[in-house]
C-alpha cells in the first residue's frame, strides 16, 4: 500500500504562509515604530514571523519573512536584498523552535519558553548583528559604522519584540490547543 503522507508543506501551512505574509506586511508597513536610527524600526512583524514559525516550522518562517519583507520594501521603493535575505534566515532559524515547543501536542512550559527566547536571541544576533550589516558592506558598499549601528539597533528591538509579543502570541496559542493527556475523565 502506498503512503499517503506527502512531502512539502501541508495545505494548512500554505494557507498560514499566505495569511502570514499579508499580516506581517501590514505590521511592517503600517505599524513601524521609529527608533531614531535611520531605516530601523521596532518591528512587530518579527514577533508574528516567530509565532508562525514556532507553529509551522522553518519553511513557513522563511517564506513569510522573505515575502513580507520584500513586499514592504517594494511599497517604499527598491528592495534591500541583504535585509530581506537576513529576515528569511531569521524565519528559518526560529522555525526550529517547533521541534521543542510542540505546541500542538504538548503543554507549553517555562523551560520551552526559555529555549524559544534563547533561540530567538541567537537568531537575531546572527541575522541583524552579523548577516545584514556584512551584506550591506559587501553588496551595497555601505559605511561600516552606519550598518552596524542599524544592525545592533535591529537586534535589540527585535529581541524585545519577539521576546514580549512573540512569547505572548505563543503562550496564548498554546492555551487554545487540546494536548495529549491534558483532558481527564471526571
Automatic annotation (TrEMBL):
It is a multi-pass membrane protein. The keyword Plastid does not apply. It is found in: Cell membrane. One of its GO terms (cellular component) is plasma membrane. It comes from the Bacteria. The chain crosses the membrane at residues 6-27, 48-68, 80-101, 113-135, 147-174. It holds the Pfam family ECF-ribofla_trS. Coiled coil: none annotated. Keywords: Cell membrane, Membrane, Transmembrane, Transmembrane helix. PANTHER family: UPF0397 PROTEIN BC_2624-RELATED, UPF0397 PROTEIN SPR0429. Belongs to the UPF0397 family. This is UPF0397 protein FEZ41_12140. It comes from Lentilactobacillus parafarraginis.
